[in-house]
Design goal:
This protein is α/β, with parallel strands linked by helices. The protein has 15 helices and twelve strands. The strands form two sheets. Strands 2-1-3-4-5-6 form a six-stranded parallel β-sheet, with helices on both faces. Strands 9-8-7-10-11-12 form a six-stranded parallel β-sheet. Helix 1 packs across helix 15 and helix 4 packs parallel to helix 6. The C terminus is likely disordered.
Length: 363
């Protein structure tokens, strides 16, 4: 990579607000962590909440050689792409999923589907390079938007360094101490009850649908902690809105399972971060086949299928759970940050080589 960086490169990563750690922020963070240590590269993270805010950072974008857009809704991404091309920059768009596809599957109002489609059409057509979170998205772009495969890179989701750091700090504590910390900061009375964690932030349609499915399950044997959304709490379900990231990880570590009851239409564009984090922590995963989309996880080997009427008894069977968790932790290593970083370097190398070749040909 260094051979191609014979002059200092300025890279602007334009992502969502970094005030709170959310699923949309994790891929931009992985991109930033991948590039920040390169010797001849100066990386800026530009936090944007709306199109209006973009105008405040035009100067930063003008001095950048490469702009990477990641974690935004389609119309903000489309605006950033058009601005980047107007400024004559190399523009990458990191695609987490397709809002148009997800809105179509879930039956959203037609005007939202129209807005999503037009916005995605613009950003796919005018960005020089696209990074996709799965092979599915690659095929999707080919089929519905006729995007040339030569401008698409596939870089799957990965465990973020920030998660590994928080996990490393908290995993040193015994489970009982972590439980007391969680009780103190959440005001929950956990006691001796077994816990299931359901991280379902309400900003995503798929999570809202999963929450509706969760409320139908009527679980009596566990305390279910739902994070990231408002819902009706009961004796067995406790709902919390946004939690600090370290507190979320602490709850995950004391949980007896992560419960993700996604229905058939709760689709996503890449492997879910909460799934990867669950595998990494060695916590049993209970979900549907939709919950493990874009992974090669197998039921009963890596996770407990929610369609099994005996899933609660499986969770309680320590011998069976031990084997499933062991297999799942091994699988988690295939989603390591190092792989993400390597693939990102390879994508940037190809882009820079292509730029250099086209410049030489023109001359």
């Amino acid at each position: 990579m260094c051979a191609l960086l014979d002059k200092k490169q300025h890279i602007a990563i334009v992502g969502p607000s970094a005030t709170y750690i959310s699923g949309s922020l994790l891929r931009p963070l992985n991109i930033w962590y991948s590039l920040k240590s390169l010797g001849n590269v100066q990386v800026h993270y530009i936090s944007i909440k709306s199109i209006a805010q973009v105008l405040l950072y035009v100067r930063s974008l003008r001095v950048s050689n490469i702009i990477i857009v990641s974690g935004h809704n389609p119309w903000v991404s489309a605006f950033l792409v058009l601005l980047g091309r107007l400024l004559q920059k190399i523009v990458f768009v990191d695609i987490h999923g397709s809002a148009w596809y997800e809105a179509s599957i879930t039956g959203s109002k037609i005007y939202w589907r129209f807005i999503f489609f037009v916005s995605e059409l613009i950003l796919y057509r005018f960005s020089q390079w696209l990074i996709c979170a799965s092979q599915f998205l690659h095929s999707f772009l080919n089929k519905y938007f006729s995007v040339d495969s030569s401008k698409i890179f596939i870089i799957e989701n990965a465990i973020t360094p920030i998660f590994e750091k928080v996990y490393g700090a908290l995993s040193k504590y015994k489970k009982e101490k972590l439980k007391r910390i969680v009780e103190r900061f959440t005001k929950l009375n956990i006691g001796t009850r077994k816990i299931l964690l359901s991280p379902l932030p309400g900003v995503f349609i798929a999570n809202i649908k999963a929450l509706h499915e969760l409320e139908k399950l009527k679980i009596k044997d566990f305390l279910v902690i739902v994070t990231g959304t408002k819902c009706s709490s009961s004796n067995n379900i406790s709902c919390m809105e946004y939690l600090p990231y370290s507190l979320y990880v602490a709850i995950l570590l004391i949980s007896d399972g992560t419960l993700l009851p996604y229905p058939p239409d709760a689709v996503c564009g890449g492997s879910r971060n909460k799934v990867l984090e669950t595998l990494y922590c060695g916590v049993p995963l209970i979900t549907t086949h939709i919950g493990v989309l874009h992974t090669n996880l197998k039921p009963y080997k890596h996770y407990i299928p929610l369609k099994d009427p005996e899933w609660i008894n499986i969770v309680k069977n320590s011998k069976v759970i031990s084997e499933i968790v062991s297999n799942a932790k091994k699988k988690a290593y295939t989603y390591s940050f190092r792989i993400f970083k390597f693939k990102l370097f390879r994508a940037l190398l190809k882009a820079l080589r292509s730029l250099r070749t086209s410049t030489t040909t023109t001359l």
